[in-house]
Specification:
Radius of gyration: 18 Å
CATH topology of the largest domain: Tetracycline Repressor, domain 2
Mean pLDDT: 86
Largest sheet: none
Distance between the termini: 38 Å
Number of domains: 2
């Protein structure tokens, strides 16, 4: 168990570092072109996997969308599993723009969850891909298993920190603890996504999440 925690921590730092690198500035020269091509591949792969599913989506289809050969794609990503891992990281970077976990101010990061839920409602294919993969990845031999283990631990740790900041400022409701607030919020978001995919007309993910957070905090949402 201790080894897994150490691995998870390294994964969390790597994710944060990638986001920092993404925000600091753009690389130059041939490296910039390589990074631009990688981003194009990841965006195309996200579309393909969202439309066809991870198992049915092919590397050839991804390569065709960016105007390159499958061999050229494999120059950037050695196999489909590596591409999937990078796609999920790319998706996290996009989500991060809504939830600024680099801030110590819970009053900034927590409301961002509502904005993220509203954005997710505009990309049903991606939400479906995430829900399907997270369920499949409970199997230890799934290529995304370690990613989801790290992601849940990273997300819970950062949400706990944000809720702790609110607790220190007297902005949590009586009886609410940061740890339970973080866990229930993750569960609420994941559960809402599944219900929304099943019946999009009866579920408003952003509004329901807003109500949940209002029961936990005194934030104006």
């Amino acid at each position: 168990m201790r080894t897994r925690r150490m691995t998870s921590t390294r994964g969390c730092v790597t994710m944060a570092e990638k986001v920092t690198e993404h925000r600091v500035g753009k690389p130059r020269g041939s490296y910039a072109k390589t990074e631009e091509k990688r981003r194009s591949i990841l965006d195309a792969a996200l579309e393909v996997f969202a439309q066809s599913g991870y198992r049915s989506g092919s590397l050839r289809e991804v390569a065709e969308r960016v105007g390159m050969s499958e061999a050229g794609l494999l120059h950037h990503f050695p196999n489909k599993s590596a591409l999937l891992a990078a796609v999920l990281e790319r998706r996290d970077e996009q989500s991060y723009s809504f939830v600024p976990f680099d801030s110590d101010d819970g009053a900034l990061s927590i409301p961002g969850l509502v904005a993220l839920a509203a954005y997710n409602a505009s990309i049903p294919g991606v939400v479906e891909l995430y829900c399907t993969l997270s369920a499949e990845a409970t199997s230890p031999d799934h290529p995304a298993h370690d990613y989801f283990v790290r992601r849940y631990q990273w997300t819970h740790a950062n949400l706990t920190r944000s809720f702790q900041n609110l607790a220190d400022r007297g902005m949590l409701r009586p009886g609410v603890t940061p740890e339970r607030a973080a866990r229930s919020t993750v569960a609420m978001m994941d559960g809402l996504q599944v219900q929304w995919l099943l019946d999009r007309d009866s579920v408003d993910m952003a509004d329901d999440l807003r109500s949940h957070l209002a029961e936990l905090t005194t934030l104006e949402l």
